[in-house]
Amino acid sequence: MFKKFAKKLHRPGPGSSPLNTGANNQRSDRWRELFTSTQTILEIAKESVKAVPVPGLEAAISGLSAILNVYGTMRANEDALELFGEAIERLDKHITRPLKDSLAKDQEFLDEDLTARLNELAEQVYFCLAQRAEALCSRKTEKKFFGYKEDSGTIQELNRELDRIILTFTAQGSIGGEVEARKARKAAQMLLINGLRRAQARHDSSSRAGTNGCFEGTRIGILQAISAWIEDPASSPIFWLSGMAGIGKSTIAQTVAELEDSKRRLGASFFFSRDDAERRDPGLFCPTIAYQLAIFDDALKFSVTRALEKDPDVAFVMMRTQFEQLIAKPLKSINTPGRTIVLVLDALDECDPSSGAVEILRRWAVELPRISQETKIILKVLVTSRPELHIQNQFQSPSFNLLSQQFILHNVEESVVQADIELFLRNRFAELADLHSMAKPWPSEAHLLELVERSGNLFIFAATAINFIAGAKRGRLLQTRLEMLLEPVDHGSASIYQKLDACYLHVLQNAERELEPTIRDAKRKFRLILETIVFLRNPLPIDALESLLSLAPGDVIAAIQDLGSVLVLPDVSDHSTPVRIFHPSFHDFITSPGRDSGDFSLSTAECHVRLAQQCFSVIRKSLKRNSRFLDNPWLRNSEVLGGVEHLETMIPAHMRYVCRFLASHISLASICNDALVESMKIFCENDLLTWLEAMSLLGDIDGAVSSIQAMRTWCSKTPSVTDHTNELLYDAYRVLLQYQLPLRQSAGHLYTSVLSFSPSCALTRQYASQLRVEYVRQGKPEIWDASRITLETRRALTGMTCFPDGVRIVTADDTASMTVWSSTTGAPITSVECELDQRRPIPLAVAHDGSRIASAPFGLNSIFVWDANTGANVAIIEGWVTEVDEPFVWDEPDERCSFVGFLPGSNDIVFVRDVCTFYWWDSQTKKVKYTCDLHDKLPTAVALAQDGSTLATVHGETLRIWDIEAEKITFKWKLRGPGSFQPVAGQGFNIIAFLPGATKIAWYVTRISRSDVVQEIEIWDYISRVRLQRVKIGLGPFAFSWDGTRLAFADGPEIRVVDADSFAPLGRLVGHGADIVHMEFLRNGLTLVSMGADSTVRTWDCAELFGLSPKLQYQGIRDSILASRNGEQIAVFYCLSDSFLLWDLSQQTSRKLNAKVTGEPVMSPDGRFVAFGQTSDGRTPQCTWFLYETKTLEWVCKYQLAQQLPGPSAFSVNGDLLAISATARYPIAILICNLVSKTVISTGKLHHPLMHMAFSPDAKLLLCVGIIDATFTMLNVSTGKAELSIKVNDLMWPIRSVRFSPEGLSIFVVMMHGEVATLEAKTLRVVDQVKASRIVQVAQTSSGTELTFLRCGNEGYLYQFIQGKEIPLIWLPPSWRGAFGPNGEERTAIWQGSRLMLLLETGELGILDLQVVGQVGGE
Predict the structure, then answer these.
(1) Which terminus of the chain faces fewer neighbouring Cβ atoms within 10 Å, N or C?
(2) Cα 115 from Cα 97, distance rounded (Å)
(3) pLDDT-derived band of residue 1384, with 50, 70 and 90 as boundaries?
(4) What is the dihedral sign for C-alpha 17, 20, 25, 30?
C-alpha cells in the first residue's frame, strides 16, 4: 500500500517538478536551499531504513519525499518549508539513523514492541499526511491556481500533524533510549537468571569432561528413530530410551543433545549422576532447566525473570510450584507456531531420592498436555534411564500412554550392536597405531574380533578397553595391555557383566602394579584413594581429596594416574575440576556382592565407617568458630561471608563436603562400631555447635535437620552410644526445629538466641561457655516443650487434615489453595493454587492410601479431587444430584458441602450438603452411586467412622447413626435431662467423633442452667445407649488418638491432653497465639497436629507429656504486668486465681498477695505503690480502690466510689498523685488523690466512656481518653474540671495506650492495630502518625518529643524504633511473642529501664535485659 502510494506521488507530469516550474524561478535562493537540504535528509533517511524489516517504514519515507514535492507545487512559503525540514531532521536524528546504527550492532535489536511502534508510525504518516497530500495533488489545475491562498493553512496543518506524530513516537521512548533501556533490561534479567541456583548438568558442562557422543557411523538405527520422532509433529512428546548399565544410553543422549544444539533446537539438557550431589538432586532440576531455557530464548528469559521478580525464592519452593512457574508458564508464553524445542534428560534413574524422579515425570505428565493446548510449539522430551521399577511404573501408567513411546536399547539385536562396536574399535586402534608407529596390521584380526565378542552389547566394555590400552606409557606396552584383556576368563559366573568385570579387574591390577616405587606406603594409599573416590557422596578435586585424606600434595595424582580408563582425571594444574567415575558400571563392579572384583571388592558399610572417621578427624583439626561472630554475634551471614568467593576461602571444598555429607556416611556405616561411637561422642561434646554454625553459613539448615535425624537414627540402632550423646543430638534437633528461621539468616544466633532461650539441657550445659550475650534474665523453660514443628503460613487458614501415613499435613487457606507439608521438618511438599476468595472453613479429606485430596470450597457448588503427589486436579464433582446418575443441579446458589470424606479401600467419596442430603460418589464411574435424604436441614455436625461403614449426624438435639452399606438409620437418639442441650455450631470446628471400635461416639455439648454454662464432651455407646463418660472442657475442638486412649481438647489457645478412660490430666500444650480451631492425632497416636486462628499449624509430641505435672495455668489476656520505671519492681496479676506476685529484682526476692482484682491495676513509677480496684460484694453499688505498699505488701489507704465497676487509673510521674475511676454508669466518677497527705484533691465527672488516663509530667493536668468515641478530655488536677475536650477523628480506634512526652509538649497514642500518633498537648491536634504493627509501647525518653517504641516483626525480630529508624535488637521465640500479636494488649508487656517484661504463653514471666544486647557489637 505504501509503495503504491509513493509511486503515484512521484509520477512525472506537466509542472510536477517544483524546481523546474516557472513559479519556482521567482523563488528565493533561501527557499531552494531549504528544499534541497530537506530532500537530501529524506534520501539519507530512506537509505537508513532499507535494512529495517518494517516494509511500511521505507514506503512512509518515500511518501514524505512526495509530500515535499507537493509542498513545492502548492507554493509553500519559506517558513512552512523550514518547519517541515526541521521535522524531517528530527525524524532522521531520533528514529531512522539510530535504527540503522542499532541494527548494525545487533541484528536482534528489533523486538515485537518496537516493530509495532514503527508500523504505527508508518501508518500514521500515510493516513494522516500522505492521503491528504495526495488529495491536494490530485485537484484540478484551476483549483490549484485559485486555491493557493487556502494551501498555506493546509501546509501548516500538515506540519503540525507531522510534528505530533514524531513527538508521540519519541515520547514513548527514543531509539537511543530504547538501546540503553534494552541494555539495562538485559543486564537486570541476566542478574536474576545468573542468581538461579543450578547444577552443572548440561550436556557440555565441565562436570561431564571426558564424555563423548556416539562414534561416527555407529548407533545409526536408534539415532534415526529419535530423529524421526523429533521431526514428526504428531508423534508423542516424550521418548523413553531404557537399557541396562553400560549399553550406551548416555552416549546416545549426548549425541542427540549435540545435534539438536547445532540446529538451535536444544532448549535444555540435564544429565543426572549418582556420584554428583548437584546432578542427583531433584530440587535443582527445575532451576537448571529454567536457566538453560532463559539462555536459549529471549521470550523464555522474559518469562523466567518475571517469575523470579514475583517470587525471588521460587527456586527453593516445592517442585510443583517450581515446574509451573519456571518451566511450564515460560513455555506457554512462546508464540511461534510449529517451532520445535527439544529437552534431553539423561540417566533419570540416578536421581536421588527416587521419589524425585517420579515427581519429575509426573510434572511432565501434568503440564505437557496443557502446554500443547495453550501453545502451538512442538515440545519433545528425550528421557533415558535404566529400567528401574519406579520409572517403569510411571511410563506404564494411563497418564503416560498417549504421552510417550519407548525404545528398549538392550533388545536391539546383538549383531547390530557388535557391528557398531567393531567399527568403533577399528577406528580407535588405527589412531593408536599411527600415534605410536605400530607395525601394521595391528592388532591382528583375531584379536580385534575377540575383543568385539567380549564386548557383547556393552559399549562401555569397548570404551574402557580402548582407554586402558591407550593409557600405556610406551608404544610396546599397547600389545601387552591388549593381551591382558584377552586372557581367558573364568566361566564360573553367569553374569552378563562377566567380561566387563574381567576388564575392570585388569585395569585395577595393572594400576596397582605400576605404582611409583618412590611413594611411601603406595598400595595402602592407592586403595584408600580408590575407595574414597568410589564412595564420596559428591566428587572432589584433587587438592580437596588430599586435604580430606590428610595426604601430601601429589599423592593422589601419583596413585590414580593409571586409572584414566575408569576415572575422569583433570589436569595436574586443574584445582577445581573433580575426579569422577567414568561410568556407573564401575561403581557397581567394585561394590556389588557377587561381581568378579577379586580383592578389590569394597564393603559399603566398612568404607563409610572409614570415611565418617575421616570427616570427624577433619572437623576436630580444622573446623573453627568464625572470628567475626566472636566480635559481633549479631552479624548476618551475608555480612560475614561477603560473597561466594569469601565463602570458598572461609570454608574450603573439603570442609564443605565434610559438613554436608558427614551424616550421610554415618547413616551408611556399620552399626556397633566402637571407634565410630567414640568419634560421635567427641563430636557432640566439642564440635556440634561449630558444625551447626558452618551449616548455617553454607545456607543449608534443611540439610542440618536431615543430618541430625540421620545421626539420631544411627545412634538409636547402636546400643553403645551414651545417653549424653543421644541427649546432645536430641537437643540439636530441637534447636534446629525451633530456631531454624533465625539460623537461616545468622549463625550468630547459636551463641545468642539458642543458648539464651533454650531450656537447661545437655546442649546448653555443654556449651554454656560459648554464650556470647546473656540477656534473658527470667523465663527460660525448664525442659523442652512438646512442640515440634510450627508452620507459620502467613495466610488465613480455613482447613487442615492429616495424611494416613502420618508424615504429611494438608492445609487450605483463604484463597482455597492447598499446601501439603512434611510433619517432621515443616517443609512444603506440593501445593495447589486456586486464587479464590474463601473466608469460611473448607471441608478437607485425604484418601486412606494418601493418593487423593478432596476439598469443597464455599460457594463453588463443587467438590474438587486432587492428586496428592502432583497437585493435579483429577475430578470435579459439580453441583448436587436429585437422583442417582442424574446431572448435578444446584437448588440454591449459596449451598455448600458441610462434610466430605473418603471410604476405605477406594477413592470413593461421601459428602453431605447443607440441605442434608448424603451422597456416595463412585471414583471409577465418576457418578453418584447412592443418595439419602437425612431428613433435617443444616446438620450441626457430621462424622465418618474409621472403617467407613457408619456415618453420624447431629441435627439440633438429635443424633442419628447411619449404616452406609445398608442405607438405613441404625440409631436415633434425643438427649433429655436437666438443663438444655445445645451442640456448638458455627465455631469452625467439628463437635462429633467416632472412637475406635464400632459402638463408641463422642460429642461436644453446652449445658445451660440458671446458674451456669458448661461445655462438656460426652462419650456414649450408641448400641446400648449408655453414657460412658463425660468431662468438662473449654470452648474449642477436641480429638481422640487413633487407639482411643487419649483425648486432647482446646481451651482457647491452649490444649489439654487427658487419659480417654479416666480423664486424668496428662499435660498441657501452649504455644498458639490465638484460639485453636482444629486438631487431629496422627495415626501413630503420639503426635498431635493443631491449627490456630493465628494462621499457624503446630505438631506436638504428646509422648513427652505423660507423667508430667501441668505448670502454672495460663490465665489469658486479662493477666497484667506492672513495673517500676527502673524495672526493679515487677508485679504480675493473675486475675482468675485472685492473686498477684511481686518481684524485687535487685534483692532477687518474690512475694505473693491474695487479692481479688476486678479493675486495671497500676504501679507507681518509683515502684513504691500498687493500686487496684475491687467490686463490692454487697448490694451497694460501689467499688473500692486499695493502695498497697510494695515493700510490706500491706494496704495503706483505700478509696470508695459510688459506682460498682472500677475503671482506669494512673499515677503521676513523681508517684505522689493517683487518679482512679469507676465506670458502671454516667457520669463517670474520677478521684484525684494526694498519696503524701492521703487526701482527695479533686473529683471529676465525664459523660463519655473512659478507657485510659495519664498525668502530665508536671502533674497539673489529667488526660482522659474515651473507649469508642474519639473524645480526649484534659482535666485540671486542682479543680477536676475539664479545660479542653475534643474529638480526635484522625485516629484509628480503639486506643491501646496514651503517654505524655517528658517535657509535656506531646502526647503519644498507640492504637490497637499498631499505628502510633503524636498529638500536640496544648491543642490535642495530631501532628504525626507512624504505622508499625506489633508494638509493645511507647517508652519514656529523656530527649523531649522523640518517639521511641519496641515492635516485633513478623519473623520474630524485636526492633527499637527511634528517630524514625528501626534498630534490630534480638530474635524472640514464638512463646515470647504473645504480647506482640496484632491485637496484643500493652498490659501483657512492659518496657521499663533496660528491661522488657513479658507475660509468656506458659503463664510465666519473661524478663529481657536489652541494655547488654547493645554492649556487644550491633546489628
Answers:
(1) N
(2) 16
(3) very low
(4) positive
- List the grid coordinates of 420: 557398531
Query: Residue 1404 and residue 1402: Cα distance in Å, rounded?
Result: 5
**Count of other CB atoms within 10 angstroms of residue 292:** 20
- Which of 262-276, 1039-1053, 1370-1384 reaches the highest mean pLDDT? 262-276
Closest by CA position to 727, among listed 770, 776, 684? 684
CA–CA dist 80, 1064 (Å, integer)? 102
Burial of 409 (0-12, 13-18, 19+ CB in 10 A): buried
DSSP annotation string for 1268-1320 = SS-EEEEEETTT--EEEEEE-TTSPSSEEEEEE-TTSSEEEEEETTSEEEEEE
Which residues 6+ apart lie within 8 Å of 60 measured at CB?
Answer: 2, 121, 122, 125, 126, 130
C-alpha cell at 1099: 505438631
Number of C-beta neighbours around residue 167 at 10 A? 13
Dihedral angle sign, alpha carbons of residues 67, 70, 72, 77: negative
If one counts every other C-beta atom within 10 angstroms of the C-beta of residue 106, the result is 11
- Residue 884 confidence (pLDDT): 39
Contact of 117 with 172, CB cutoff 8 Å: yes
- List CB contacts of 494: < 8 A, sequence separation 6 or more: none
> Which grid cell sits at 424?
568403533
On the CB side of 1099, how many CA atoms lie within 13 Å of its CA? 26
CA distance 616 to 605: 17
Helix (H, G, I), strand (E, B) or coil at 236: coil
Count how many residues are written for the chain.
1419
In whole angstroms, what is the distance from residue 995 CA to residue 599 CA? 60
pLDDT at residue 1114, rounded to an integer: 34
CA-to-CA separations, 613 to 342, 391, 606, 610, 718, in angstroms, rounded? 46, 36, 11, 5, 16
Taking only the tens place, the pLDDT of each residue in 172-223 is 666 766 666 666 667 777 778 888 889 999 999 888 877 888 888 899 999 9
Task: Please tell me the least confidently modeled range out of 13-27, 356-370, 1230-1244.
Answer: 13-27
Classify 952 as helix, strand or coil: strand
What would the grid cell of residue 890 be?
A: 444446584
Distances (CA, A) of 30 to 43, 81, 401, 1031: 20, 10, 81, 108
| DSSP line for 154-210 | HHHHHHHHHHHHHHHHHHT--HHHHHHHHHHHHHHHHHHHHTS---S-STTSGGGTT
Helix 688-697 to helix 701-716 angle, to the nearest 10 degrees? 150
3-state secondary structure of 365: helix
Cis-peptide, bond into residue 652, ω within 30° of zero: no
**Count of C-beta atoms within a 10 Å radius of residue 410:** 19
Residue 572, CB half-sphere, CA atoms under 13 Å: how many? 8
Instruction: Please report, for residues 413, 441, 465, 507, the alpha-carbon distance to residue 425 in angstroms, rounded to integers and kept in the order given.
Output: 19, 14, 9, 18
User: Which residues, 6+ apart, have CB-to-CB distance to 1293 below 8 Å?
Assistant: 1268, 1270, 1311, 1312
Backbone φ, ψ for residue 1171 (5° rounding) = -125, 140
pTM of the model: 0.73
Q: Can you say whether the dihedral through the CA atoms of 876, 879, 885, 887 is positive or negative?
A: negative
- Say yes or no to pLDDT of 707 above 70: yes
For residue 895, what pLDDT band results from cuts at 50, 70 and 90? Answer: low
Measured CA to CA, the distance from residue 919 to residue 821 in angstroms comes to 30
Other beta carbons less than 10 A from residue 40's beta carbon: 11
Q: Point out which residues pair with 983 in neighbouring strands.
A: 1005
Task: Quick: pLDDT tens for 1175-1213.
Answer: 876 566 788 899 999 888 888 898 888 776 888 999 999
